[in-house]
Design a protein that fits this description.
The structure is a homodimer. By secondary structure, the first copy, chain A, is mainly α. The first copy, chain A, is built from eight helices and two strands. Chain A has a domain at 4-83 and 131-155: Orthogonal Bundle (Arc Repressor Mutant, subunit A). Chain A binds a DNA duplex through residues 2-4, 24-26, 35, 37-38, 40-41, 43-44, 47, 54-62. Chains A, B: This is BadM/Rrf2 family transcriptional regulator.
DNA sequence: GACATCGTACTCGGATACTAGATGTCCGAGTGCTCAGGG
DNA sequence: CCCTGAGCACTCGGACATCTAGTATCCGAGTACGATGTC
């Protein structure tokens, strides 16, 4: 899995604490000491997926496009890592004996079904957790986190 | 995910129908028109993982090392794709404000927890399905499959 | 005729190239602020 | 003093290198069969 997924999730949580202000890729990257240009690339992907909105120019930056409750972890994974399943059925059964060239072995093959089923539970789990859930849990553990984040962003403004 | 996982699973199911005879990588590859040497590499990985046993020389080949009921799909995924989770927590929080260098953010980070939880359900699902389960299901749908496979192997003996 | 030994053919095993995708970087496109100039 | 417009500084956006890991291949190690020669 793409490493940018982790960056994107943390950045989205931080953005949920930015109280509506646009935050630049530069500051988001400085927060965790990440390469700015590469993080920017991931943020672009989130923007294309409709998770973030972006504004160019001075006072520009990124912010969440919708309520954090409506942004699931799956949304982020799909945006960064693509919609394809990890297990790709290449339909090798079509080369085997008694194969039906018209059949869709992605659906018919029992192994493909089992793998798809497992990935489905995985995705359901990720779809059931939103950025807001993550934020709430973090706040429960360390209530000062949002303020710390805002202060950090303020200090990075120099 | 490594493409060899699919090959390995189909080959294990076929081996479960080989009635104890060793099958060469050459024949297993010819079955689905796969590159022999590369499939051999995957079979080696299965052997190292203790899923298959291998014998060199004439009348050599591969066979299942244990009862198909005790070979889960997860075993195969781990053998081919490695034991690492897809999501690797790089502990970027250690670069953030108020970080504790001694803490293990793989365990502490809420995002890491959520991702690990999702992958856990995924692995549980795969661990609950054995090669024997797959075989049974295939036989239920097409009872002639094992015989077809044995015949195919016999015809490939030339 | 029977046995032992050598040779041979066949298969697994790991070391070695090749290639695609992830990682990382750079420059152009777009936008709001600032400041100068004129009314 | 206020308004207008051009310049500028800053940021996003996508095109361009680099590098790891998956893909593919080849040759050596190991083993059983069979042929051959001898007793």
């Amino acid at each position: 899995m793409n490493e940018g997924v982790e960056w994107a999730m943390h950045s989205c949580v931080n953005l949920s604490w930015a109280s509506g202000e646009a935050v630049t890729a530069k500051r988001l990257a400085a927060f965790y000491n990440l390469p700015t240009a590469y993080l920017n690339k991931q943020l672009q992907a989130l923007t294309r997926a409709g998770i973030l909105t972006s504004v160019s120019g001075p006072k520009g930056g990124f912010q969440l496009a919708r309520d954090p409750r409506n942004i699931s972890l799956l949304d982020i994974v799909v945006a960064i890592d693509g919609p394809d399943d990890a297990f790709r059925c290449m339909e090798i059964l079509k080369e085997g004996p008694g194969a039906d060239a018209r059949a869709d072995y992605t659906k018919v093959c029992v192994i493909s079904q089992a793998m798809r089923g497992a990935e489905l539970t995985y995705r359901r789990e990720l779809a059931s957790r939103s950025i807001a859930d993550i934020s709430d849990e973090v706040v429960r553990l360390t209530p000062a986190a949002p303020d710390n984040t805002r202060n950090r962003f303020a200090n990075l403004k120099s």
